[in-house]
Amino acid sequence: MSDSVSAEQTPAAPGLQRGILTIPNAVALSAAAMAPVLAVVLNAPAAASAAGAALPLSFLIAFIACALVGNTVVQFSRKLPSAGSFYTFNRAGLGPAAGFFTGWLFWIGYAILAPGLFTAFGAFVHDYLLVTFAIDVHWWVCSMAGMAVVFALSVRSIKASVNVDLALLVVEVLVFLLLGIIAIATAGSGNSQTYFTTSVAPAGVAGVGVGVVFGILSFIGFDAAATLGDETKNPRRSIPLAITGALGAVGLFYVLMMYALAAGYGLNDPAKLAAFLTDANPFVTLAARVTPRMLHLVELAAIAGLFSCFLAIHNTTVRVMFAMGRDGILPSSMGKIHATWYSPLRAIIAQTLFTVVIGTGVGLWLGPGATGAYGFCGTIGTVAIVIVYLMSNIALMRYFWTHPERTVLTHVVVPTLGVAVLIYPLYSVANPLQLYPFNLVPIIVLAWVLAGLVLYLVYRARSPEKIAALGSFITADDLPAER
What we know:
Blueprint: H1 23-34, H2 36-51, H3 55-79, H4 86-94, H5 96-111, H6 113-133, H7 139-156, H8 158-185, H9 204-219, H10 235-265, H11 270-277, H12 282-290, H13 295-326, H14 345-366, H15 373-399, H16 408-430, H17 441-462, H18 464-469
Helix pairs in contact: 1-8, 1-10, 1-13, 2-9, 2-10, 2-13, 3-9, 3-10, 3-15, 3-16, 4-5, 4-15, 5-13, 5-15, 5-17, 6-7, 6-13, 6-14, 6-15, 7-13, 7-14, 8-10, 8-13, 9-16, 13-14, 15-16, 15-17
């Protein structure tokens, strides 16, 4: 199967600014979207309720699963670089209908993560100001302040956004790596190989499986660089390198930090494990225990991690919206850019309003913390995005089935394994028997799919040309950068 669109067929209309980003810029977006510090701060307590002391094992399995999906993104990005990423990939491999539903799910999968980050950022800043300075500012005020900065950066320049992400990322990761090394070095009998076995999980294999769900949630965003296909120099080379680099570095960071948390807290001791499971912020507790002088640094690094993830997820979402607007599936205004800054202004405004309205509403309903709005929104996003990941592995096999560059290992075995390792986490998180409000998650995702089906049937009946053209815009490497 050949690439969908040649360079000569690429539309000449003004678009995102070409060639302004480098490989480090793209790495920064993917790494910030995964939010390594945020993941270990928020997702570790959530995963521990099921995985217990097997936290490191759960995150190691999640790393392997996402590496298998990463192969799919890399292989497609070499052929089909585009702001649409999975939307474009699945259209090429499975046809326009699959492209439509991929875009529909991928959009909500990323878009719904932003309200959760919006609330979590406000909650963390509120807690820090209250404990440190005895200043009581409502969480939603802090969230709105963060949203204002995210909006300004995303409108002004993707270059500025990814540079901010890169600077914050370096600082926060260095702080947590230092904490992790100190925790392991001072853990004594807390160091144990049993953290990589299912025997230390309260619910055994099933508990580890649920932990893997939160591990995969921690990796969501590794593909964010794929949405920069329109804006990165030499995207067919740069995007695969950026995704591989970000996924590998962050994956190793996760496994190391989960082990440091387990060892430093002493989770091989049942009494300490029981205390850990009731600790709202175990990394802060760990910092206070092993290196009190770093306590404020750890808290500030967690806030920085939240903000950088919020910014990265926002920028990724608006580029998916831009691609769908450009193809006419969303209102065409979403596919328009700012005349001076080359940013998808209408999409940015729409996503900002969505984030504020949903984030404030769900935050007031469930609370803004890790087990409230963040966890609920993150679970919805995980279900939607994991479905997209599953489809992309199947699409890769079909796309390369008759391609002259096809290899059995890369284009058959690896994507097949990718499908296999994602099935159980998807079942675990989409299981309708979960406790309220998480039992609503599969209902919400199904309702979104049904709404998409209605829209698809309307387009197929009234505008079949839109369905046929879905995801057909492919970035050409040889086009000059916009000035």
